[in-house]
Specification:
Layout: H1 2-5, H2 14-17, H3 27-116, H4 123-131, H5 152-175, H6 177-181, H7 185-194, H8 197-207, H9 219-247
Helix pairs in contact: 3-5, 3-9, 4-5, 5-7, 7-9
Length: 250
């Protein structure tokens, strides 16, 4: 084969091998040598193509694997981002709904005061009660006669609205964030009426009024007023949730 490309067309004995020959001795020998050379070329190119295809497939596999990893990481990242966004939404909606519901309850108390001369709770007493916590005192014989605390009025009002936000968060924790996005009345009323447990069994005994206002001159009247007031809080939860869902739809 090599002799063909060096001008050596006759490959006889060793003595004749290094002697240049201008014309081939037999035409059939040329065809055989050319055919043999073409076969070598074809085999080489087939092997090269096979190797190239194999390398291309390996490269594509690496790319596909990289894309799969990227998509998986992106999905997990979106999941974490979605979870964080839902947590922020939960806090924001609880604050809005709790604040709105507490404001509705205060408006109801203002209406009772103006229309029927029924005084609402003095939230300075709540601040006074809380202000004595660092001193280790959690209950009083009569909160009105307890020593005053500096800043008790703002402390009481802040605590009043903070408690409302906590109750709104409790509602959303039980019925889920979807309730805040698409509020219904019944859960709000259930939670609103349930919150009357706090004044009946915690605040009123601590203020010296007894369990469920049992030490007051007219306990049944006080209980009824408490139930209606907290019912207004439940209506406020529903109304504030509707407003929040309308202003910030998902």
């Amino acid at each position: 084969m090599r002799q063909l490309f060096h001008g050596q067309f006759a490959v006889g004995n060793v003595a004749q091998k290094n002697q240049p020959v201008c014309m081939p001795q037999r035409a059939g020998e040329i065809g055989y040598l050319v055919k043999d050379r073409m076969m070598d070329i074809c085999v080489f190119h087939i092997a090269w193509y096979k190797q190239s295809i194999k390398q291309s497939i390996n490269t594509l596999n690496v790319l596909f694997e990289a894309v799969s990893v990227w998509r998986r990481d992106r999905k997990h990242g979106q999941g974490r981002s979605k979870k964080m966004n839902e947590q922020l939404e939960f806090v924001a909606r609880a604050a809005a709904i709790g604040t709105g519901a507490t404001a509705v309850m205060d408006l109801w108390g203002l209406f009772l005061e103006r229309a029927f001369a029924i005084p609402p709770l003095d939230y300075a007493w709540v601040g006074r009660w809380i202000g004595h916590f660092p001193r280790g005192r959690f209950a009083h014989a009569n909160i009105a006669q307890a020593p005053q605390i500096r800043g008790e009025t703002p402390i009481g009002w802040v605590a009043h609205y903070a408690i409302g936000i906590v109750f709104a968060a409790l509602l959303m924790a039980v019925w889920g964030l979807d309730w805040a996005r698409h509020p219904t009345l019944l859960p709000a009323l259930v939670v609103g009426m349930s919150t009357v447990v706090a004044p009946f069994f915690v605040m009123q005994p601590a203020f010296g009024a007894g369990i469920a206002a049992s030490k007051t001159p007219h306990p049944n009247t006080a209980r009824l007023r408490g139930l209606i007031t907290h019912l207004s809080f439940g209506v406020g939860l529903y109304g504030a949730a509707l407003l929040s869902a309308h202003l910030f739809p998902i």
